[in-house]
Amino acid sequence: MNNQNILLTLILGSFFMIMAYLLLVVFGFRAQLDTVYLAILIGLICSLLSGIIMHFRVARLKQQFAGTNLIVKKNEAIIIDGMANFNNQMGKLYLTNQRIVFLPKISNSAKEAGFNIVLSKIESVMILKTANFIPKGIIIKSPLKERSFEVDYADDWRCLIEWQLLLFKSKNEMAKTNAV
Question: CA dihedral defined by 156, 157, 158, 159, rounded to 10 degrees?
């Protein structure tokens, strides 16, 4: 358990302690020292239980996404990565200096395999919006397909992808002029 989880568990314990005290007073217990001790005990038990539940939940999530690590090619660097949803399938989305990669969470189905989009094949990147104004994800258009990803910080993803596209195109143009 890291420090953030311990802090959250302490906050939850304090919340449960205050709620237990208020409920004990409301249900007829006198506001005496015994009631305070009982509320502290209930708060400690609830915070311990919530900490244990949180620990196992985080461990399960880590196990689910343990196989979603990108194998980086030679001369390739990861620019950004984050959790993404593609066709109701959770996974990890990576932007490198050469491609965009989606790796789904561990699955036994071959249908749920990951895929690459090479930067040279990308025509445009747009923001996917909910109710026509709330950014929800990104849409990547290539000559053959249009893929939508629900991601956090969609504007940042779009900007970084467009920036990598500019860098990729300028490198290719420089290589062409140097070859001549």
Answer: 50
